[in-house]
Write a structure and sequence with these properties.
With 244 residues, this protein is of the alpha/beta class. The chain has nine helices and nine strands. The chain has one domain: Rossmann fold. Strand 1 and strand 2 form a beta hairpin. The N and C termini lie far apart (44 Å). The model has no long low-confidence stretch (mean pLDDT 92).
């Protein structure tokens, strides 16, 4: 708690400090109290309408950028499904400036936050309100997503459960609903040579890889670990024949 209070003293105006400390002791996340986070070196506003970006998502972005630079040209089409604060879409646009980036979210309120973050970071993103792939009508080089993946009966820390939007946390089918929806229909929205990049729950890897094999039987499917050595990412390489 002392660490958070020091953080407040550095980033909160003095007139907001007392209220911030009260909110902290009431169980509210620091990021919502301060109103912003640093993600991949960039500034993002956050509030209770969006998830707080995690370190694992920074790793997803880092790995994806490396694969895009290795196997694609700069002029690529990207779609981020369930964009939330916009941290994935905006960071990819910042790091690959010549790309065209689309960001989708079902939440009107979340899109409002993401649009504000795009302005703050001075990038042009196409924002679409809708459910994952359903509102799209073109093909992409990259589909990337950190979808809701927590099962409804899975234990979750109170600070997360009591503050962050449940629509962005929980999913039916033991947390697998959106992976199946995305992978079932993804081919309709992918160019011949393409990449799918997914953040996953640490215990979902084998099940999601099996879903991926069903819909992408001829593709290279890689499951990768995060810095904590947990299975955390699935990458699907379509018509990319280089050896890994």
């Amino acid at each position: 708690m002392e660490k958070q209070i020091k953080y407040f003293k550095k980033y909160l105006p003095e007139e907001l400090l007392e209220d911030g400390i009260k909110r902290l002791y009431a169980g509210e996340p620091v990021q919502y109290i301060v109103g912003n986070v640093n993600f991949y070196g960039f500034y993002f506003k956050v509030n209770h309408n969006v998830l707080i970006p995690r370190f694992e998502t920074e790793e997803l972005v880092e790995k994806t950028i490396n694969y895009l630079k290795l196997y694609f040209s700069d002029n690529i089409d990207i779609v981020d499904l369930g964009t939330g604060s916009g941290c994935i879409a905006i960071t990819l646009k910042k790091k690959i400036p010549n790309s065209k980036v689309t960001a989708v979210d079902i939440s009107f309120e979340a899109l409002g936050v993401a649009k504000e973050n795009a302005k703050i970071n001075n990038v042009e993103i196409e924002f679409i309100q809708g459910d994952m792939l359903k509102p799209l009508n073109k093909k992409y080089d990259l589909i990337i997503s950190n979808p809701p993946y927590i099962a409804y009966d899975e234990p979750v820390m109170d600070i997360v459960k009591n503050n962050e939007p449940h629509i962005a946390l929980y999913a039916d089918n033991n947390g697998l609903k959106y992976y199946k929806e995305i992978l079932k229909d993804a081919n309709k929205y992918l160019k011949e040579k393409s990449l799918i990049a997914l953040e996953i729950g640490a215990n979902q890897g084998e099940k999601i890889r099996d879903i991926a094999k069903k819909y992408f039987p001829k593709s290279i499917i890689k499951m990768e670990k995060d810095l904590q050595k947990r299975n955390r990412f699935i990458f699907i390489f379509n018509n990319i024949n280089e050896k890994f």
